[in-house]
Amino acid sequence: MNGQFRNHPVPQQIPSAWSNFDLESNAPGGYPGGSWLQTPPHLWTKYHVWEWLQHTLDANQLDANCIRFHDFDITGEQLCSMSFEIFNHVTGPLGPLLFSSLESLKWSNKFLQPMGQPLMVEQRDCQGKEHQSHKANGKKHSPRGTHLWEFIRDILLDSEKNPGLIKWEDRSEGVFRFLKSEAVAQLWGKKKNNSSMTYEKLSRAMRYYYKREILERVDGRRLVYKFGKNACGWRDCDR
DNA sequence: ACTAGGTTTCCTGATT
DNA sequence: CAATCAGGAAACCTAG
Asked: The pTM is what?
């Protein structure tokens, strides 16, 4: 009973509009929302800021509860203008970590190069720590990046390309409904290179999110889910 | 080699 | 009846 029987063909019913989207998403960090790494921090949108924050917490194995995401409803420009003191004030014990992460990105040679500027810049952040220098090449870890709930969120947010796969039931409350459950499951499976993904299995993974409060239970309504307090980046104003 | 988190797979039973 | 929902258990996979 293990994954030996995985790669058998499955009827392809993925709407064509999504084929491209999905191919893109197989590129490292290339899902439709992973672009903060390719963008200098001061040009980040609010959404980029969310992504950076989430990625940094993730990379340091910190729970999203550690932070009040609401305090980061700001653009990259605003973020970059925050002083170390402000960071500490807003994020408490995580201030130093976040500040130094941002500082590293600001000074990443990836963003310093384009205009023929210094190649190697010594990394010293405002606290005298001596970080980075290793993976300044955006490669970082976990190119697999997207978790299921983010994948779902991104489909919802990309309404122009979303050919009726999932639909908002209550946009402001974060309630949504699967319209084509099996098609979404196949898309997810395609992303994970698993052609035997089904809605039955996908939904089990969704139910695990209740405990982590990434999703809230919506009972009585089939195929309906609701984003919980630990899901971020889905609100209109986050974009 | 080992570990933890995040699924994936399977299953039984309840609901719609 | 078929499709979903609920979770427990255990296998899997991958970054660290």
From this structure: 0.57
